[in-house]
Amino acid sequence: MSYEALVDLLNKAPIKESLEIITLILNRIENVLKNPNDPMFRTFNKSDPVITRFILQSSLGTFCLRFMGCLEQPEYYFLPQNCNLSLLTELRDMLLVWKESVNVEASGTQVSSLMINKLKPLSVIKPIVLPVLSAKYTHPFFARIEMIFHSCLRYADENILERAKNLIPVATLEYKAQNRLREFQRHIKINKLNMSEILIQDMLILELLEWFKKSFFTWVSSPLCDFCNRETKFSHYTHEKSYLQYTNRVELHRCAFCHQFTPFARYEDLNILLETRRGRCGEWANVFTLFCRSMGWDARIVFDETDHVWTEVYSIGQERWLHCDSCENMCDQPLIYECGWKKQISYVIAYSNEEVQDVTWRYTSNFKETLKRRTACKEDEIIRVLEDLRQRRQVKFSETRRKYLTRRNLMELVQFLTEKKPGIEDEKGRQSGDISWRVSRGEIEEPPKGFVWKIDPAAYLSMHRATVRYSSSNDCYELVSGNELKDSKEGWASGCYFHQNIFRKVEDDWKQVYLARNENSSEQGTITWKFRFPANSSKKLKRVAVRFCCAMYADACIKAQLGCDGRVENINTDASVYKTDNFAGQTELWVKATLSGGQGDIAWQHAQLFRQPLESDKFPFAIAFTF
Fold first, then answer.
1. Which of 99, 357, 426, 598 could cross-link 606 (Cys pair, CB 3.0–4.6 Å)?
2. pLDDT attached to residue 597
3. Helix (H) or strand (E) holding 281
4. Other C-beta atoms within 10 Å of 514: how many?
5. What is the C-alpha separation between 368 and 391, in angstroms, rounded?
6. pTM of the shown model
7. Distance from CA of residue 588 to its chain's centroid?
């Protein structure tokens, strides 16, 4: 049971009925809290007409009883002696906030999603209180560094660390990490690789990243409208005091349909974020860093001055800091921001409750150009300021801990002396957030236009036929003629000409895999493949056959087309083979798929290209050319 489910029932019931039920429940909770040992207040008799009429005949009433912890007997409900009184206190405070918020005269009033944010986090959870900052620096850049470093004291709060640890399914993650480690060790042994020591911690980091993104936190570019539940767009920041509770940053997003404003608070307090579990990169990195700290790892939050935030975790086995971006479920790809997101890196600073470090050089492959952009201060100044902040923070640490941190800091600086060269993985664009949001921030280029399959009929004289096919289970393309493999490409994006808002989804629980729109995206997805044949070849294209397997749920739509300049035909999406002679003689063809529709929060998932079991060896997409 959750507070969100309770709010949902409050919304569904008429306001008058809800108020009557909540008033009775509140009275009983108050009596229990005042008289915890009196069984009279712990019993709800089914023979009592008031209890029957206002509580037992209502799904809201019975839900509240179960939420309190009441157990049902044939003639009554009762609250056990060992019930959780703190839970009753939280429930009372939440219901009081709801009751005070409802305008009884407005019979059509409902509790909006904004109220969900106000109920438990703001009325019950106590924000972390940090010591007062005795600011030393007035230079704006240094003052900001000092302020962020001070705020990282929250990661040393034992209460919040314990609360965070209790939210992590540690046993499940450890089991998965053990399996991942065994597979990794097997791979090293087979391929006779020399690797630094990889410990279970490294595998646990990967499992925690995956669980955090897929199961715990939610990305919000713009919240749904509180009034009509439709999409909104950012309008402006508000300075109204009624909105500024436990934060000084509240965005207002305007609905294009009803034109009402929906607030979106940008919380930094960890206790509140453990309740709301949503936000953008700042909120994601803040909570993920906390989770890493709660696991007993040295972790720090990393701020890029070009506006992104992530985490670094220290790997004991590898004796180095690992870049971890929880928004992207990405580990140890530090150059992706510069190469894939096209960020103009200048200053990247890492903060923990123990130290602060300039880690810019881990995230750039061009030291010379990066130095040109570092104009906020002189290089020797930032070195002195960071060293001063470290020494002041560590003054009460043990001598052993200070020496360890100093030695680790020096080892890290040595690692920065050598420029790294980007690889293929570093060229990926950003995945978190809607396409329009990423483009507006300059963190993704216009969708890539790239690969063209060049098919020469002269190479297939014996068969007069060539087939390009794709397996989503193996995530690879093959160009075959008869039983002979002519070419292959790894990765769904490597063999297409154009793609926008598409990714490969692996369902570990259902053991299925397919291409879909990016997670949490409401925009349509598009993918195009292009095929070219030599114009001077004596053998011309005669016939095209396409098999295009799709799965659609909840009003989702996949439109598939085959075309060239001047002609377009719709093709089947039901796995049956579509054949046509209408493109005979053409020297270039394309196949295009557009994904749209679906319902609810997982609408992005309802249109699925090339769905198949993970263990399948079949090719759900194939296009055959006969010459």
1. 598
2. 87
3. helix 281-294
4. 21
5. 30
6. 0.57
7. 39
